[in-house]
Q: What sequence folds into this?
């Protein structure tokens, strides 16, 4: 009985630990740091990722290095295209 209880607890812990995800997973590119290379702490910054999504935020200090930390919603590249397409459609309609 004690053996079964131990197995259930161990299996539960393994299952729970497999679902842990970090909201701030490591960055795979240097854009957040490059966005703040010539800026001061708390300055506005922005950068794009490999899919041209736009990230806007402010420069914050991490390990003695400034990094652009997002503080606004991500502007997805496909959403930008749709928005500009709608604006183009309106300008054609108004002529």
A:
């Amino acid at each position: 009985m004690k053996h079964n209880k131990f197995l259930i607890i161990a299996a539960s812990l393994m299952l729970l630990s497999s679902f842990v995800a970090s909201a701030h997973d490591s960055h795979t590119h240097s854009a957040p740091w490059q966005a703040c290379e010539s800026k001061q702490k708390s300055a506005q910054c922005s950068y794009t990722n490999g899919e041209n999504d736009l990230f806007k935020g402010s420069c914050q200090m991490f390990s003695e290095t400034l990094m652009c930390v997002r503080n606004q919603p991500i502007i997805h590249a496909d959403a930008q295209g749709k928005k500009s397409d709608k604006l183009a459609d309106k300008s054609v309609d108004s002529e």
Notes: The first strand starts at residue 44 and ends at 48. The chain is about 40% helix and 20% strand. Residues 30-82 form one domain. Confidence is low (pLDDT under 50) at residues 19-25, 83-95.
